[in-house]
Request: fold
Amino acid sequence: MMPVPLPHDIVMPPAAPWWPPAPGWWLLALAVLGLGGWLLRVGLRRRRRRRWRQRLLAEFEHRVAVAGVSESERLAAALVLIRRLVRRSAPRLAASSGSEWLRFLDGEDPNRPFSTGVGRAVLDAPYRSDLAADTSAVLIDLLRRRLHQLLVEVAHDA
Reply:
């Protein structure tokens, strides 16, 4: 015996097609693509800055290692690179000399190694022929630390 259909059977509508998606899915896809593009841009910029800093630090070490036989030539090579970096971020300071340059080299260091300490020698050491190796090593180490600080400052400014 066949069932008799009722006059009011529930009829299901056809399933919704999967394409094209509803407008909300389009907006979500655009948001995800935008976020992905922004993250890619930020990541590439950070990578480029990191590689630039690494190249600059390697150049500093290379210049100090291969610059002439005298300690004053090694120190002069280190100072040239510092001035080149400063010229990029603060051109007025790159041309400064004397106490203004020493204050800049001190940066945020409360010990003021350039203004009041052994770092004062950077003003005339590149021009002296009797610069001791230990003095040169101390000055180059101070300049290396300042270079690291400058690279951090430049990275935050960019």
